[in-house]
Amino acid sequence: MKSYKKELTFNTNTRRAFINITNTVNDCLSESGIKEGLVLVNPMHITASVFINDDESGLHNDFEKFLERLAPEKPYGQYAHNGFEDNADAHIKRTIMGREVVVAITDGKLDFGPWEQIFYGEFDGMRNKRVLVKIIGE
Ligand code: ZN
Fold first, then answer.
1. How many folded domains does the chain comprise?
2. What range defines the domain where residue 113 resides?
């Protein structure tokens, strides 16, 4: 069995952002040389998500509005977690959007359903954040 690991770094210029990382994960897959197996992608931080959905800007605006309704960023004082930090909303948003994705690799390709794309979801950005890509197979 072969194994491959890479860490990606993101530093968004806004507090929240959705970034399509499908091409980057594809580059990792090519680099790994693995043809059959699994790829795991997860942020190494508890205020960011990796998730699969449609690359459609209306939907991304809907996600933003939905998450702000459930866990508004402000007022910061509404959260017990906020004292030294102001990112309670980001922890909650990340938990709603999920931690990681696992995608099957078949014939050297990400074995997606129609319209599936991989996104990095940032909820407390403007600093370096890492994402782990782990691929196993042969
Ligand atoms: Zn925190």
1. 1
2. 2-137
> Can you give the pLDDT of all 138 residues of the chain as single tens digits?
999 999 999 999 999 999 999 999 999 999 999 999 999 999 999 999 999 999 999 999 999 999 999 999 999 999 999 999 999 999 999 999 999 999 999 999 999 999 999 999 999 999 999 999 999 999
pTM: 0.96
Q: Are 15 and 89 in contact (CB under 8 A)?
A: no
Distance 112 CA to ligand 1 centre (A): 33
User: What CATH number is associated with residue 96?
Assistant: 2.60.120.460
Omega before 72 within 30 of 0, i.e. cis: no
Which residues hold their Cβ within 5 A of ligand 1, which is an ion? 85, 87
